User: Fold this.
Amino acid sequence: MSLNVTGLHVGYATAQVLHGVDFTIGENETVALLGRNGMGKTTLVRAICGLRPPTITSGSVTFDGVDITKKSSHQISRLGISIVPQGRRVFGSLTTLENLSVIPQRKDILGERWTVERVFEFFPRLGERQTSMARSLSGGEQQMLAIGRALMTNPSLLIMDEPSEGLAPSVLDVIHDRIEGLRGTGLSTLIAEQNVDLALDMADRVIIIDDSGSIPWSGRADELRNDSALLERYLSI
Ligand SMILES: Nc1ncnc2c1ncn2[C@@H]1O[C@H](COP(=O)(O)OP(=O)(O)OP(=O)(O)O)[C@@H](O)[C@H]1O
Assistant:
């Protein structure tokens, strides 16, 4: 798996948000995307996944050597990138089981495929709630379901947009543990997060987005954790 983002400019009808974003993600890497509120984390992950708005105005996104800059979100999903959207977006009027069963799956993959049973092994709590309507699940259970739905596509790159948002600390521990559990399964992960401590615990590498609409710093998570000037400058911590 390799993702290469080069010179990406992205915006909305009303405003240009990203002004030349460059980064790469390699095989088996967990990368955190950090930045203060409104810097463009969601804009960047939506652009990579082919979700519109926003619109990519220049630059390119290449995934496993294929230019996906102009591809639709469905095409990108079929190539192996899956997103856990901000706000979870599960189907409230379907059961847990139905939410997982309706996902189109990529079949031509190396390694173990995801099945509903495997998701229930991975998140036992979802197995217990498989006949419940998704709208009746707690926030944490909905987040597990959103991750389960993304895994069902059999991605090689999983992108999560603020997985910690609105979750209680005990649930965060579960989500953190499960994201750790994905390591070594051949999956690479990009996590956009406001919760810097959590992100630094989970990630091998960090990219920071700032008000220039680009990536002023990237490096190892432990480097950032130990650099109070960087934390203050870009994340106001
Ligand atoms: N649909 C939209 N139309 C116009 N502008 C938008 C739209 N969505 C986001 N923006 C603007 O784009 C900029 C970046 O927003 P974005 O949501 O990508 O930031 P973020 O880093 O993910 O922030 P947060 O952590 O608050 O979600 C903000 O100025 C926001 O107001």
Observations:
- The chain has one domain: 3-90+155-235.
- The pocket of adenosine-5'-triphosphate is lined by residues 12, 14-15, 17, 35, 37-43, 53, 194 (CB under 6 Å).
- Residues 39 and 210 are 6 Å apart (CA to CA).
- The mean pLDDT is 96.
